[in-house]
Amino acid sequence: MKLAIPHWQSRVSPVCDEARRFLVVEIVDNLEVRRDEFEMMPSGSDPVGRASQLRQWGVTTMICGAISRTLEVVLQGAGIQVIPKVCGCVEEVLQTFRAGALDQERYGLPGCARRQQRRRAGPGCARRGKRPKDDP
């Protein structure tokens, strides 16, 4: 597997659609075997161009922060699994992903549905915000 993480200042880039720098890590049997840094070319500003560049780098999975629905669909159509709405230090996110624990709330991008869905997943959520109807 080749995993891409768009980053800025050692953290997962908060907006994938605008990210320029990508860490690409090759993982075999859950061990890191190679690591490269790539910069998205200007032609990669459109979703198809971004997907094309990621495929040229051999990426099969991408962990990212916020991502537009358009880019996410194009990446998935290109055969790239997208793990969106992730935040944190790139190295910590990478290690946590390899440990299979990336679903921890502390890695959820603040304000995104990923965090909110986990909080709402408890019993009675469907009733929240709804008032019972009065009997006639």
Tell me briefly what this model is.
By secondary structure, the chain is of the alpha/beta class. 26% of the residues lie in helices and 24% in strands.
List the helices and strands and how they pair.
Layout: E1 2-8, E2 11-12, E3 21-28, E4 31-39, H1 47-56, E5 61-63, H2 69-77, E6 81-83, H3 90-98, H4 113-120
Parallel strand pairs: 1-5, 5-6
Antiparallel strand pairs: 1-2, 1-3, 3-4
- H/E series: EEEEHEHEHH
Report the strand count. 6
The fraction of residues assigned to DSSP E strands is 15-25%
Number of helices: 4
What structural class should be given to the helix and strand makeup?
alpha/beta
Shape: globular
* Average pLDDT for all residues: 84
* Unreliable runs: 115-136
State the major sheet.
Answer: 6 strands, mixed
Give the distance, in angstroms, between the N- and C-terminal Cα atoms: 62 Å
Query: Using only CA atoms, what is the Rg?
Result: 18 Å
Question: Care to describe what's here?
Answer:
There is one protein chain. The protein is 26% helix and 24% strand. The protein has 136 residues and is an alpha/beta fold. Strands 1, 2, 3, 4, 5 and 6 form a 6-stranded mixed β-sheet that branches. Helix 1 (47-56) crosses helix 2. It is globular, with a radius of gyration of 18 Å.
